[in-house]
Amino acid sequence: MVSRDLELRGTASGVDSARLLKMLDRAIQSLYGLDSPLEAWKKVVRPGEVVGLKASCLAGRGISTRVALVEAICERLQQVGVRDIVIWDRLNSDLESARFQIRERGQGIRCFGNDVLGYEEDLAVYGSVGSRLSRTLTQICDAVINLPVLKDHSITGVTIALKSMFGAIHNPNKYHLSVGDPYVADVYALPPIRQKVRLTICDATTAFTRVAPPTCRSGPGRIMGLS
């Protein structure tokens, strides 16, 4: 489902954080068919879980998951009793380029890249792929909310929900052949990814896409977009 607000930006280049939160609330309520955003979030996560927010920051500021969106999600997660949140992506430098502040330790909200904990030693295998998975995903997170952005890609055509999980493996460079087919779908189907991703929220507040996405064999479950 898609949630839209034509006045999200107003006259400035940024977004209105209050309107973004309301748009997020409408989306999650509609997705789960509930009248309260907090009741809807309780369908996604449980108190006591470590929830990972998988950002997409490789492209840098302006073409990455918005900090304001992540802050809105963190607010709602904390309100339903989640006390341990980890914002993560491939590298600390990627997160910093998107204006996230690195915080590797402490209670509450942490933020760091895969370069902090590294990758598992053993390969995870599914279909055509074999990759070492991020230890943040495998050892820290009980549940993951995937936060891709809507943007084009010179090889695969478009990168949204499934391809965002290339940021969870050590060898994404191997899987861009044949416009990413079947690799994009097979990476997402790696059991630790498939089992932990509970929800995908696509940040389409600024879209960079020129072509239609190729067909993939595996879907990301529940997904909603904000534009």
What characteristics describe this protein?
227 residues, 27% helix, alpha/beta, globular, 8 helices, nine-stranded mixed sheet, Rossmann fold
Report on this model:
The chain is an alpha/beta fold. It has eight helices and eleven strands. The strands form two sheets. Strands 1, 2, 3, 4, 7, 8, 9, 10 and 11 form a nine-stranded mixed β-sheet that branches. Strands 5-6 form a two-stranded antiparallel sheet.
Could you outline the blueprint of secondary structure elements for this entry?
Blueprint: E1 2-3, H1 17-32, H2 37-41, E2 50-55, H3 67-79, E3 84-89, H4 92-97, E4 108-113, H5 114-117, E5 124-126, E6 129-131, H6 135-140, E7 143-147, E8 149-153, E9 157-159, H7 183-188, H8 191-196, E10 197-208, E11 223-226
Parallel strand pairs: 1-11, 2-3, 2-7, 3-4, 7-10, 8-10, 10-11
Antiparallel strand pairs: 5-6, 8-9
Helix pairs in contact: 1-3
- Under CATH at level 1, the class stands as Alpha Beta
- Could you estimate the helical fraction of the residues in percent? 25-40%
Number of extended strands: 11
Task: Give me the secondary-structure category.
Answer: alpha/beta
The CATH architecture classification is 3-Layer(aba) Sandwich
What's the alpha carbon Rg, rounded to whole Å? 17 Å
The total domain count is 1
Report strand %.
15-25%
Distance between the amino and carboxyl termini? 11 Å
Query: How large is the count of helical segments?
Result: 8
Largest sheet: 9 strands, mixed
